[in-house]
């Protein structure tokens, strides 16, 4: 820039001298002053231009920063429970969850979910810190997408959508805890394909369960078999498929199948299949949810334990009077020791009746009466508050 100013100054001086054949001392002095003033004005113009350029650069950087921030999504949910069943009272901040996502482009996005359970984690503490989701999703075209990483298994009703304002009851239904081990996440890859409007198909290849082994004696407790992708044994992978129908407004029908060649991860060849089917229907204020789930485990050890067949179902009618208030009743029945090796009735029943109150669509207060029969007899009530954002 200084070099350019020097050239301009030289040009001005040369022009000034050329126009004055024999200038007097006064004329030379006036010419120098004029040239100095012109140089000063030129310098000021250049500095002003540089200032505007710097402001433009800062504005562009700020816009870029704002654009990057707009690609980030944050959210979460949580719920506090008070349970009083047969004088067994407890209060628990059951879940505190944070979501974070990032949209790289219109076709590529990232999503994650980090959870603290039971408020406090560590040695001898009741809670855990868990990474429940962390995957990249890519749209291959308008009808097909693929996700890879750690994701929720596409089975049942609550496993993928379980934020407190979205369901009735303080506690989640026991069938989707005992038979379907919700919340259930695995690592792998999953393809989603929209077959037609309101009809979709999911297929996943993912890590599998590993049922507990105590000194060579296996307990086929499905929920205890979750490895949670923590250095998970991957000798036996699982294959999950789901077909979902939502073409009729207010109606959702879905069925899932999962196959795993060995629930013991390469020891017993305990072939296992999970079958689930559910229906959700809402019209006006009336709502209905129903689900059936069954494990079929082909292993002598499971048969001896009475765990080769494990199944359960629930039916839940509800009525929502307005945006603020709704009532429900839910009947649950399940048996995770129902196999041929069991000579006693191990069926469990649980009934819940209560209400939800939403002061805001994303905040809910809950109350329900609970009655259990079977191996865990008991009556009582539950109170809860939950939120999502």
From TrEMBL:
Residues 25-59 form a coiled coil. Keywords: Coiled coil, Signal. SUPFAM superfamilies: Porins. Residues 1-20 form the signal peptide. This is Porin. It comes from Kangiella aquimarina.
């Amino acid at each position: 820039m200084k070099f350019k100013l020097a050239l301009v100054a030289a040009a001005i001086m040369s022009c000034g001298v050329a126009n004055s054949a024999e200038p007097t001392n006064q004329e030379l002095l006036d010419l120098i002053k004029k040239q100095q003033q012109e140089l000063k004005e030129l310098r000021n113009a250049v500095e002003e231009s540089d200032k505007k350029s710097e402001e433009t650069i800062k504005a562009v950087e700020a816009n870029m920063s704002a654009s990057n921030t707009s690609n980030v999504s944050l959210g979460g949910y949580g719920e506090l429970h008070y349970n009083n069943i047969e004088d067994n009272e407890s209060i628990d901040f059951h879940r505190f969850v944070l979501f974070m996502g990032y949209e790289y482009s219109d076709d590529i996005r990232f999503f994650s979910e980090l959870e603290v359970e039971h408020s406090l984690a560590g040695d001898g503490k009741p809670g855990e810190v868990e990474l429940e989701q962390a995957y990249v999703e890519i749209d291959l075209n308008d009808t097909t997408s693929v996700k890879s990483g750690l994701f929720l298994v596409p089975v049942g009703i609550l496993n993928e959508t379980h934020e407190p304002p979205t369901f009735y009851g303080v506690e989640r239904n026991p069938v989707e805890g005992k038979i379907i081990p919700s919340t259930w996440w695995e690592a792998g890859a999953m393809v989603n394909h929209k077959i037609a409007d309101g009809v979709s198909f999911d297929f996943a290849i993912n890590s599998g369960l590993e049922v507990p082994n105590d000194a060579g004696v296996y307990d086929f407790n499905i929920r205890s078999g979750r490895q949670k992708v923590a250095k998970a044994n991957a000798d036996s992978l699982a294959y999950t498929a789901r077909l979902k129908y939502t073409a009729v407004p207010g109606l959702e029908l879905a069925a899932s199948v999962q196959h795993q060649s060995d629930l013991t991860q390469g020891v017993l060849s305990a072939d296992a299949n999970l079958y689930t089917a559910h229906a959700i229907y809402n019209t006006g204020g009336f709502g209905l949810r129903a689900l059936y789930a069954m494990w079929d485990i082909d292993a002598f050890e499971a048969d001896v334990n009475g765990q080769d067949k494990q199944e359960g179902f629930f039916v839940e009618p509800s009525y929502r009077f307005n945006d603020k208030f709704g009532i429900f009743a839910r009947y649950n029945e399940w048996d995770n020791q129902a196999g041929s090796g069991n000579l006693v009735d191990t069926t469990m029943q649980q009934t819940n009746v209560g209400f939800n109150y939403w002061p805001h669509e994303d905040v809910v207060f809950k109350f329900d009466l609970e009655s259990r029969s079977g191996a865990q007899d008991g009556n009582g009530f539950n109170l809860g508050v939950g939120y999502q954002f």
